[in-house]
Amino acid sequence: MVDPAGIADALTPVFGAQARNAMQLWRDKQLEFSFRRGLMRRYVDFDTCTRQALRFVSAQLGVPLDANAEQALLECYLRLPAFPDVKPTLETLKASGARLLALTNGTASSVRSLLGHAGFGDYFEGILSVDEVQTFKPDPAVYELLKRAARPDAGHVWLVSANAFDVIGAKACGVRAAWLRRDAARVFDTWEFSPDVVLQTLAELPGELQRRRLA
Fold this sequence. Notes:
The chain is mainly alpha-helical. Helices cover 49% and strands 9% of the residues.
């Protein structure tokens, strides 16, 4: 729903010509650190993973950050720009009677701020944070959290994600999933699990769900 690449604008005054590299490295390490902690059963919340990943970027690129600069960049992560197709799609889904839940690796407070800044907060019935199960996607416990929250409609749950690992995690737990392929050059991970639907834009989602209801 929001674009992590949007952090590059905030990184430019600090990292200069290395801003795009810093953006990608920060995102990669943020996810890598959460994967490692899930496997090691050494949970800390995603805000901590994000902070540790930023410190890695600072050290790797040789750009020191004082406490104020670090905090300012972390706060920018709560103000990422929204993709333009999100709000109209959420409005359509809500009008159709769909229940909308945010299933997130982030803390509930951070995601609430992120959604609120993007103007999406009122569309969601609730925020399901991995804090409740003390692990990260794609641990099966996260998708079981979603299935429990969706009762009595658990058999009709869909997960929608731009992350292949998230789609694979959901499918492995028996949850139908749509992969949002915003970059046409991206290839889905070559696993035994594949998405039920591949979307080029989020605006395609309501029509795809309706077709499957009628099939």
